[in-house]
Amino acid sequence: MDIEFNKNEDINKQLVYEVSTRLKKIYHGGGEKAAARQKEKGKMLARERIAYLIDKDSNWLEIGAFAGDCMYTEHGGCPSGGVITGIGYVSGRQCIIVANDATVKAGAWFPITAKKNLRAQEIALENRLPIIYLVDSAGVFLPLQDEIFPDKEHFGRIFRNNAQMSSMGIIQIAAIMGSCVAGGAYLPIMSDEAMIVEGTGSVFLAGAFLVKSAIGEDVDNETLGGATTHCEISGVTDYKQPNDKAALDSIRNIMSMVGDFTKAGFDRIKPAVPKLNPKEIYGLVPDNREKAYDMLEIVLRLLDNSEFEEYKAGYGQSIICGLGRVDGWAVGIVANQRKLIKSKKGEMQFGGVIYSDSADKATRFIMNCNQKRIPLIFLQDVTGFMVGSRSEQGGIIKDGAKMVNAVANSVVPKFTFVIGNSYGAGNYAMCGKAYDPRLIYAWPTAKIAVMGGAQAAKTLVQIQAAGMKAKGQEVTAEQEAELLKQTTDRYHAQTTPYYAAARLWVDGIIDPLETRRIISMGIEAANHAPIEKAFNVGIIQT
């Protein structure tokens, strides 16, 4: 056991180290030369702006750091999607912060940039959090304009959200700290207040070159849309600041005067650390996704005092449900048990599989947490629902539908952590991205796919081979083996947490020891938004 524990510990620490190494590279944005050009203009870098804006020694939770990772390589890449987003504290107030990174293609918007901005706004909307925009962008990246401009979840949705947040009373403050061009000009101006930095900030619908070609007027960008124009002539902006730091100081000052908010009222007592050492998680999670382990041991290392009020402990054991606290906050835990179980009926149940009894139990528990106004934490390591004639005749689809229904209609905040496998409909039932978790993060051990790699690859190869044979092409055993290897490698690459995080299927990849902090910050954010909708599951399968 000790040898296995130590082996797991070494491998999982290496995985965490890989995450931190890749993040360090991402944090350099567009590189040293691009950073130097920003400095020459007297501008702070995006991450420097955030560090200066947020309260000293306060928590900063980055969202979407891996966005765009290994994407758009033909265009030179787009580290962090060219925009930095997260939850931070400004003058003691929890806020969403969105900062364009002008070292990445002058802050131009790629498709993933729009998706990431919309995710930040979604979090602000769901939690009624103030949002601060640090704007420094050249506008839409024209070579990809068709993938960013016209559709419902594209660029224009951002301004629609600006308007809706304003109507909901969600505070929006913008600082124009560089270029702010064309449609992007609306974002800061649709905020409650907009300030502009003299000399570097500019905002206009069309730059000097476009004005010249469109109407033949010769004019420079500063006259078109600089600080003096908009603070003293047009009245478009509200404050003129001499430099980046002065603008950030002004935001801090404004935020210090914001009134208190109505609380949702989630229960919190004095926080306590787990009695069982959370660092032991590294040794408890196996070195591969096929091995069994006891998820309860993970749960206990995430909860205050390692205290857990387990719900229906002897029934539906392939899902663990129960109540506990994280950093003082009351939470309901729904977690996939990964060890082999023998039910009281004598049935052997595989770990990570959702059976009828466990789906039934989880549904009832989720409904209970909604009744009690207790936030839900989902810990995913799920291979899917049980298949086969016995399960089908036992009504697994009906029981799975009940669970999906309860998750979908939940009104309490939900937070999801993908610890291991996240396959097929199991991803949905355990509150995957499509089911509106307030935050969703992956551990480095996560794998996200419609089904396991081996099964998927074999199925895909069988389809390809059948297609080739239908065309009269002979498929040798060697060709089939090579096809299987290529398909398996491609499939596995698409199931990594990095692939998911690059596309914002998850908000990031974290060290497991960060889980408690994220839950606490997430519930604190959710506490800004009182629950107004009644819990109603509609027609539920019985």
Automatic annotation (TrEMBL):
GO MF annotation list? transferase activity
The domain of life for this entry's organism is: Bacteria
PROSITE patterns the UniProt entry points to: COA_CT_CTER, COA_CT_NTER
Domain CoA carboxyltransferase N-terminal: residue ranges: 12-270
Q: Enumerate the UniProt keywords alphabetically.
A: Transferase
InterPro entries per record: AcCoA_carboxyl_beta, ClpP/crotonase-like_dom_sf, COA_CT_C, COA_CT_N, MCCB/AccD1-like
The record, for SUPFAM superfamilies, names: ClpP/crotonase
Every copy of the CoA carboxyltransferase C-terminal domain together lies at 274-533
What is the protein name stated in its UniProt record?
Answer: Carboxyl transferase domain-containing protein
Question: What is the taxonomic lineage of the source species?
Answer: Bacteria, Pseudomonadati, Bacteroidota, Sphingobacteriia, Sphingobacteriales
